User: Fold this.
Amino acid sequence: MQIIIVHPRLRRARALMLRPWWWVAASLGILLALAAGSGALSYATLKLASHERIPWLAELLAVPAGESAKASAADDQRAFVRQNLDALAVRLGELQARLTRLEAVGDRVAGIAGVSLPPSGPGAPGRGGAEPSSSRPLSMAELSGEIARLAHGVERRGDQFSLLENELILRNAMAALMPTSQPLAEGVLGSRFGQRIDPISGRSALHEGVDFNAPTGTQITAAGAGVVVFAGWHPGYGKQVDIDHGNALVTRYAHASRLLVKTGDIVRQGQKIAEVGSTGRSTGAHLHFEVRVGDEPRDPTAYLRDGRILGATAALARGASARR
Assistant:
């Protein structure tokens, strides 16, 4: 093929002869350029689609948009679960610290109560330290194991507190049965337990209780809870009440003017049971109070917890010693 080129600036026309192999080379060059451009465009498009996850681009490239959305949702779900596991691990650590403090409180209470609790294992009341240089999140199996250990510790400590509670309840019940409460809200100690000169016979004799001087009608209360085993008249004690507190321990309230309980009654500590009088072998209104164990008289001041009574007894004893 011959091409003739004519131009005003050219002095004469020029002829260009195109050979057949030139056409072949030009065609091949154009095809190669198109292939290279298409490959570069495809690579850039795929990379953009994989990083940006553009739905319309995925659809254009014939990548199902549903699969891309599912993959994105799965990644978000995994991140959400991981965040919750980390938060749960932190909360678990706080609960472990609280359990440690609870165990320390339980040990102190047990020490005050004089009760020995089973060992609860080593604990660390303080927590902290420098930030570790390397760490990893807990796996689900590790977190489950820590929760199981914490639950076991709580259950064990709960059993120990139940044991401590039962012991304290028993002690409170026993304390309520013991005659430790003052039988008279107001009264003056007139005669103590022990040898004295009998006010009627004038002879030396054992005084088996303590006397509290008080006006007739003053209320007499039970020094401890128990069962009334006698409420009636006695030639020497006049109107008398005996209360059994268990374990052969009996308290006696004598010379009353009026009885407010009867045999078989169950009384509580501090309950009104009689009124002060001067019945029986008595020289004036007062309460004769005894504590007997196995029918043997004991010094009531060893049981009464009221400091005024103990103080008055000590003062009376000092005065008697000074007179002797």
In short: Residues 176 and 225 are 6 Å apart (CA to CA).
